Every structure is written in structure tokens, then in C-alpha cells.
Amino acid sequence: MLTFCKAWVTAILLPCCLISVARAQQRTYENDLPSGEAFLGLSTIPIWEKNVPGAIGTNPSDQPTLTMFRPRNKITGTAVIIAPGGAYRGLASDLEGREVADWFTARGVVAFVLRYRLGAKYLYPIPLEDAQRAIRLVRYRAREFRIAPERVGMMGFSAGGHLTAAAGTLFDNGKADAPDAIDRVSSRPDFLILGYAWLNAMQPNAQGFISYCSVLKTVGPEKCRAFAQEYTPELHVTAQTPPAFLYHTSNDATVPVDASVSFYRALQAAGVPAELHIFENGPHGSGLGQGDPALDLWPMLLEAWMRGRGLLTPAAGLPSPAN
User: What is the CATH number of domain 2-12+33-308?
Assistant: First the structure.
């Protein structure tokens, strides 16, 4: 399903044009998820207890984590891992992290905000390995978290959307001979939610739009070409790619809407259930809508999509809190 929205109007998809870009992101980014009072009372879980693969140091930015948000009342058994954006330089951890987690918990979904490793210090595939490990860990500990292991999805915004789509197209079923039991579990997310995702991040910089290599200037041309082949999600879509919900705006000046359209078309071609909503106006980095009368509709569309897939209906056989 594809909609083009001025308010909420279904339309026929017309050929899309690239839009001129603002040189800088329209948000302020933080280097890490907030600590202390901003996350007071919530569970923060290291995705590796020790010996973090590829770690260069022991600072918080070297230690990927999940911060868990539990629903207060209704429990559906569905979980979502949220990857905030930030151009792979930082994390918009409130707008695209905590606020989104609160939206999910109000609907009975256990939410986890992922702090993944960033920047030239941690080039690909390190961020992807962090996302894959996070999915494995949540699924491995599903009973403890009161989650159905077949209902572990991932959501991402901007760069986090690229990471989410990469996790949804470059997964494995687990490594049977892995010494760590968590690594024996599948890294495939069960559904994908992509908000103005930077799906063309690895493509060469064109017509003014930013790219992974233009942001992280230490990456050489040869490695950039390799990244474009290895980590452009639409190139790796198969029939096993999870169902997806996508949202974008036509005049996004940082990430072209064509990136979402191309991924949607790849999903369609592979027979993967997918829904794409394109709004006429809206800046990059709008989170859940930020009070815009039109953009505020997209979370409602997401909720309808999740209900239609049974993700907001309580799963059978969940353990009680006492177990």
C-alpha cells in the first residue's frame, strides 16, 4: 500500500524528483543516550556483558546498550528496538528515542532504545553488528521480558532507519556453534518501521545530498564503493525480508524521498508486505510529527498497520510477571 498525503489522501504514485538539500541536519544530536535523571528508573542493558567486539576504549560510546521501557498496564508480547538517527555521528535520543518508546509502551509494546556505536571510530559493519546483537539478545531473553520471540521488530529514523533496513536485509538464523548462546539466536527482525530513513546513505554523494562517506570524511573512495554494494538495503531485499512500514515527506531536504520509494519497490518486487506513506510537506527529523496537523497522522497510520498485523493483540502463552 502506498499513500501520498496532503492531509490523508490516497493517490497514485507519480515519478519522484530529487529535491535540493539543506547542507546540515535540521536537528541537534547528542553523542550518547542521556544518562542520569533523563533515564532514571529505566533498565539499561549492555548488549555484550564483557569483551565488546571491536571496542576501542571503555567510554559509554564504546559500549552499545539497550534501554528498556516497559508498558505499565497492557502487555501485548510485541517488542520494538528503536534506532535513533544522527547521521552516524550522534543520536537524537529524545526525539527519536524516548518519545517514541513512550508511544509504544502506551500501546502495550515493550520498547528498547539502542545506543549503537558511531562515527569514523566505528565504521560499518560495527553499527550493524550492534543492531544484530540487540535483536538476538531481546529474542534470547524474550521470556524474561514477557515478549513473544516471533514479535521482535525494529524501528529507525534517518540513519537509524538505514541501520534498521540493513538489519532487516542482512540477517542470519544464528550461529549454531557460537560459544555465546545469544549468538545462536536469529538476528532477523520480525517487522520493520522506517521513518524518513536514510536508505541511500551508502550511495555516492549526488546532487547535494549527504552520504555516509561525505559525513565521515575518513572513508576512502574504494571503501565507499564497497560499502555501497554491501550496505545499500534495497540491493539485498529477498522474500525473507520482514514486512515493513515506511513514512517520508516529499520535500525532505536531507534525505530524498526517492530512497524510501526505491526500497518500497524492492519489497514489492520480492513479494514482501509493505506500506509506504508519503506526506507532501515536512522537515527531516520530525519524529512523531511534532504537532504538525498533517504529520501527526503518521503514528495513527502506524498503529493501524500494527493492529492489522496482530502486533497489538496480546500474544498467547506469555509468562506471568511472577515467572
Answer: 3.40.50.1820
